[in-house]
């Protein structure tokens, strides 16, 4: 059974870099059938796609966040990671990782999410 | 960038009633890449419908999706207590975009 688990600090200071890792179990991150993505949800608000990565390392970013986002993959650990630089309070959100079907381009499986608060 | 507008923002219904949720795109989108999700408080979203009308694995048949072009609909034929939640549509053109959501609440 596929599981995705986000991990990383729950509190980040303004202007610093938010770093999260998603560990995939029950399936291979190297499958050609899927992308792997990050989505966030500010408290009480809707969903925002941050970016996605293919096992080969090809990346796709939300244009509104592109200048601050880096997503990477480590196939040996079955993990992919998110770095968001120069954070402000508006980056406070629940961050989800998810598996995206290449064929249907939908977010098939989601991690439980992790709340990251930006505050001094 | 394509914008998805969901309506209504909130739908107040009773168990057993029919729910009709709308998702309108600012320009035509491929039905193949239109999906619907359900999110309950404190939980991650769950994929309900892909390809505009195909139910995901394990989704009850009271959920159905339809539409094409710029107008898409999610219908819940008879609301069960566990269906009261927020629903999002999502399309994947050049990049993924989510609608703002419709909350289905108990009347």
Number of helices of chain A: 0
Shape of chain B: globular
Elements of chain A, N to C (H/E): EEEEEEEEEEE
Low-confidence stretches of chain B: none
Largest sheet of chain A: 7 strands, mixed
**Structural class of the secondary elements of chain B?**
mainly beta
What is the C-alpha radius of gyration of chain A, as a whole number of Å? 13 Å
**Amino- and carboxy-terminal Cα gap of chain B:** 36 Å
Helix-strand makeup class of chain A: mainly beta
How large a portion of the residues of chain B is in β-strands, by DSSP E?
Answer: over 45%
Overview features:
heterodimer; A: 120 residues; mainly beta; seven-stranded mixed beta sheet; four-stranded antiparallel beta sheet; 11 strands; 52% strand; B: 107 residues; three-stranded antiparallel beta sheet; 10 strands
Chart the SSEs and their pairings.
The complex is a heterodimer of chains A (120) and B (107).
Chain A: E1 3-7, E2 11-12, E3 18-25, E4 34-41, E5 48-53, E6 59-61, E7 69-74, E8 79-84, E9 93-101, E10 107-110, E11 114-118
Parallel strand pairs in A: 2-11
Antiparallel strand pairs in A: 1-3, 3-8, 4-5, 4-9, 5-6, 7-8, 9-10, 9-11
Chain B: E1 4-7, E2 10-13, E3 19-29, E4 34-39, E5 46-50, E6 54-55, E7 63-76, E8 86-92, E9 96-98, E10 102-106
Parallel strand pairs in B: 2-10
Antiparallel strand pairs in B: 1-3, 3-7, 4-5, 4-8, 5-6, 8-9, 8-10
């Amino acid at each position: 059974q596929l599981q995705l688990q986000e991990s990383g600090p729950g509190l980040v200071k303004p202007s610093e870099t938010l770093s999260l890792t998603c560990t995939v179990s029950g399936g291979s991150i190297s499958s050609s059938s899927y992308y792997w993505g990050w989505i966030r949800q500010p408290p009480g608000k809707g969903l925002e796609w941050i970016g996605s990565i293919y096992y080969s390392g090809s990346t796709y970013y939300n244009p509104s966040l592109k200048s601050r986002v880096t997503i990477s993959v480590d196939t040996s650990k079955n993990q992919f990671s998110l770095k968001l630089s120069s954070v402000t309070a508006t980056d406070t959100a629940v961050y989800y990782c998810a598996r995206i079907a290449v064929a249907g381009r939908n977010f098939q499986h989601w991690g439980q999410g992790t709340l990251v608060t930006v505050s001094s | 960038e394509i914008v998805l507008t969901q309506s209504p923002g909130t739908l107040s219904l009773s168990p057993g009633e029919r729910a009709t949720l709308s998702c309108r795109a600012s320009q035509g989108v491929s039905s193949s890449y239109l999906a619907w999700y359900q999110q309950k408080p404190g939980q991650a979203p769950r994929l309900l419908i892909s390809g505009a009308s195909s139910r995901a694995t394990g989704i009850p048949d009271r959920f159905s999706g339809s539409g094409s072009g710029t107008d898409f609909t999610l219908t819940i034929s008879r609301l069960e207590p566990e269906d009261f939640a927020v629903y999002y549509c999502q399309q994947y053109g050049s990049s993924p975009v989510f609608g703002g959501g419709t909350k289905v609440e108990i009347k």
